[in-house]
């Protein structure tokens, strides 16, 4: 499920090879907030991980899937009202057997919301 233009919208991107910085707007009208949580929306961690994956796909030009998550730290609560715009920083390093090691973070000027390290793979 792609979340671009439903959960978030890319406002600006800076790409240098397999590294990139994506400034995104978190869209408060996304239907995910109907269950997480009504009248007090909180960005679900799984949606943040999917956002990182989609940014990694833009960098690599490949349809990626998560093979393993080595580390995922939710360091602050992200909400559309507290952080309507954030920066997603992603680096994808080619590894063995059609995989990339992906390092990423989601943050704004005030704080970091998520730190991520994992392996993403693509089909042959």
TrEMBL record:
Pfam families: ApeI-like. One of its GO terms (molecular function) is lyase activity. It comes from the Bacteria. Residues 21-93 form the ApeI dehydratase-like domain. Transmembrane segments: none annotated. InterPro entries: ApeI-like, HotDog_dom_sf. This is ApeI dehydratase-like domain-containing protein.
């Amino acid at each position: 499920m792609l979340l671009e233009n439903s959960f978030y919208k890319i406002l600006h991107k800076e790409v240098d090879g397999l590294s990139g910085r994506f400034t995104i707007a978190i869209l408060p009208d996304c239907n995910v907030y109907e269950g997480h949580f009504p009248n007090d929306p909180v960005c679900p961690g799984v949606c943040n991980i999917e956002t990182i994956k989609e940014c990694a796909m833009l960098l690599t030009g490949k349809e990626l899937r998560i093979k393993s998550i080595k580390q995922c730290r939710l360091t602050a609560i992200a909400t559309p009202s507290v952080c309507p715009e954030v920066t997603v920083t992603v680096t994808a390093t080619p590894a063995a057997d059609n995989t990339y090691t992906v390092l990423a973070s989601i943050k704004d000027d005030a704080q970091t919301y998520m730190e991520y390290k994992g392996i993403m793979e693509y089909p042959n």
